Amino acid sequence: MGMSDYYQNLRDKIGNELIFMPGVAGIIRNEQGEILFGRKHKESTWGLIAGAIELGEIPAQAMVREAMEETGLVIEPEKIIGVYGGEDQRFTYANGHQVEYITIMFECRIKAGQLSPDNDELKELQFFPAHQLPPMVNKYPDHIFSSQQEERAHFVK
């Protein structure tokens, strides 16, 4: 799915200026404990399954929606791993739009579905072991990739 009406209206008013964008991202593991990554069309780097939270949407609902749109999988967010923001979460899109994501990172379980790569958003989907992660678009702390998550959410101080 492309940009929502909300973000399009905002961009019509402010152009390419830097905006805060609340988002979600998921650590989605297969039965072997590998983590699902996606690669967009015409890009060489990979990213977690992620996206913006829409107006009126609960963050966990946004994670479920993004996973379905990008992968074809029905997932269940099981817990929040951490919340991340700041300069490490800044990104400039090819069209010049600048964002600084405030990302709620979920640990997710696959409930159903079948991977369906080469969709509108992603060209390729692949599971990677935590010790052999692909080159990534966004910077996240290494902690989030561990299968030994603490009960408490992780925060960068």
- Rg for CA atoms: 15 Å
Please bin the fraction of helical residues: 10-25%
Derived from helix and strand composition plus strand pairing, the structural class reads alpha+beta
Q: Work out the number of β strands.
A: 7
Unreliable sequence segments: none
Round the mean pLDDT to the nearest integer and report it: 90
Globular, elongated, flat, extended or rod-shaped: what is the shape?
A: globular
Number of helices: 2
Q: What distance lies between the first and last C-alpha atoms, to the nearest angstrom? A: 34 Å
Q: How would you sum up the major sheet?
A: 7 strands, mixed
How much β-strand is present in the residues?
35-45%
What are the secondary-structure elements, in order, as H or E? Answer: HEEEHEEEE
Structural description of this entry:
By secondary structure, the protein is of the alpha+beta class. It is built from two helices and seven strands; from the N terminus they run H-E-E-E-H-E-E-E-E. The chain has helices spanning 5-14, 59-71, and strands at residues 19-28, 35-39, 47-52, 73-84, 90-92, 98-113, 124-128. It is globular. Strands 1, 2, 3, 4, 5, 6 and 7 form a seven-stranded mixed beta sheet that branches.
Descriptive labels:
single chain, 157 residues, alpha+beta, seven-stranded mixed sheet, 36% strand
What is this structure's SSE topology?
Layout: H1 5-14, E1 19-28, E2 35-39, E3 47-52, H2 59-71, E4 73-84, E5 90-92, E6 98-113, E7 124-128
Parallel strand pairs: 1-6
Antiparallel strand pairs: 1-3, 2-3, 2-7, 4-6, 5-6
